Amino acid sequence: MEEIIFSRGRRSGVKTVGMRYGRGKVKEGDEIVITEMEEDGNMMGWEEGGKGSGGRLK
Question: What pLDDT, in 10s, does the model give residues 8-45?
Fold first, then answer.
């Protein structure tokens, strides 16, 4: 599947991708792994995507 997302900026784009991917692909019990170097603003989308699907951020 290929998709193009247009956003206002990087942070907005990363948040959108995290939320949409998390809600569509992450299942209960799944872990979303990110690095310690990730900015707080970028983690928000992954957190929201994981909450809706039962996944958790690690």
Answer: 888 888 888 888 887 788 888 888 888 888 777 778 88
Angle, CA of 37, 39 and 42, to the nearest 5°: 125
Query: Rounded to whole angstroms, how far apart are CA atoms 46 and 33?
Result: 9
- Residues facing residue 32 across a β-bridge: 57
Which residues partner with 31 through β-bridges?
56
Three-class SS of residue 30? coil
- Tell me the residue type at 34: I
Give the CA distances from residue 58 to residues 1, 3, 5, 26, 55, in Å, rounded to whole numbers and listed in that order: 26, 26, 25, 13, 10
